[in-house]
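Our consortium's second objective concerns turning raw sequence data into structural hypotheses that experimental partners can test. To show how far this objective has progressed, the report includes one record in full. It was chosen at random from the queue rather than selected for favorable results. The single chain below, 89 residues long, was entered without modification.
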Amino acid sequence: MTPEFVITFGREAMRVAFLLAAPPLLAALLVGLVISVLQAVTQIQEMTLAIIPKMVAVLLTLVVAFPWLLETLTTYTTGVFNLIPTAVR
C-alpha cells in the first residue's frame, strides 16, 4: 500500500462524504435563511419556527435525493471492495 494510494483513497472517501451530505445541508441552509429573514421582518423569535421547517426540508430532500444518494454510495462501496485485492499486496 503506497502513500499515493492512501491519499487517493482518503480524498475519494471525503469527496463521497461531501456529496452525500451536501443536499440535506443545502436544503437546511436555504430554509434557515428564509426563516431567519421572515423572523427578522416580523420580529417573531420562536425557536420552533426555525427548527420544524428545516427538519421537513431535510426530510423531503432525503426522500427526493435518496436514489442518487444510494447509487453514489453503492458505486463507491463497490469500488472499495474491488480495490481490496490490490491494496492487500
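The partners drew two points from this record. The chain has two helices and no strands. The chain has a mean pLDDT of 91. Both points have been shared with the crystallography group to help prioritize constructs.
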